[in-house]
Amino acid sequence: MATTLNFLVINTYNTLTLGVADNSVYVGTAVAPTMVVTLPSGVLTLSGGSTVSIPFTPNDYNIFNSATLQLSTVGVTTPLPDGIYGLTYSITGTTPVSKSIMRTDKIQEKFDNAFMKLDMMECDMAIKTQQKVVLSSIYFLIQGSIAAANNLASTQAAKLYQQANMMLDNFIKTNCGCSGNNYIINFQ
Questions:
Q1: What span, in angstroms and rounded, lies between the C-alpha atoms of 87 and 13?
Q2: Domain at 7-103: CATH code
């Protein structure tokens, strides 16, 4: 039996952290366990690079934040950017394992806040129903972005994410985001 590396990216439900659990099967001791993280396109570390090599704790749940990923100074944590992250786990003498994930925690937090406003707003039924239609569309765009990233379609993932973000910003900015006409025309 040989060592087989694997890891799981676990949602922390927090814009400040990225959780990675080791799911490897080890034979012997893991020598020099390292996680290399490639940041989303356009995001650079404090030193100007787009990748960072981080010590990784085998058989454990590793939590990374902006300081760990060298996006902020030690002791200061800022929200991690959304986008496609590349992760490669390696130890000496074993074939590394790589995965890419679409991180959407910031837009999900914004979506959740908009969603929570639905029940608090005083709107007529057509407008309230239209709000649900708009939020459902935004949710499907976010999920489509994740699916595209999982299938290595990074350009499509970025387009879907940008569309969802634009629609969400407009929804929040206009407070209700509609007149109810879209629902009346398309769904009745």
A1: 19
A2: 2.60.40
Report the distance separating Cα 59 and Cα 80, nearest Å. 24
Please state, in angstroms and rounded to a whole number, the distance separating the CA atoms of residues 153 and 146.
10
The tens place of each residue's pLDDT in the chain, 188 residues long, gives 679 999 999 999 999 999 999 999 999 899 999 999 999 999 999 999 999 999 999 999 999 999 999 999 999 999 999 999 999 999 998 999 999 999 999 999 999 888 887 755 555 566 667 788 888 999 999 999 999 988 888 899 999 999 999 999 998 888 654 444 444 444 45
Going from N- to C-terminal start, the domains of the chain cover 7-103, 105-187
**One-letter identity of residue 147:** A
Nearest to 78 by CA among 41, 108, 48, 105: 105
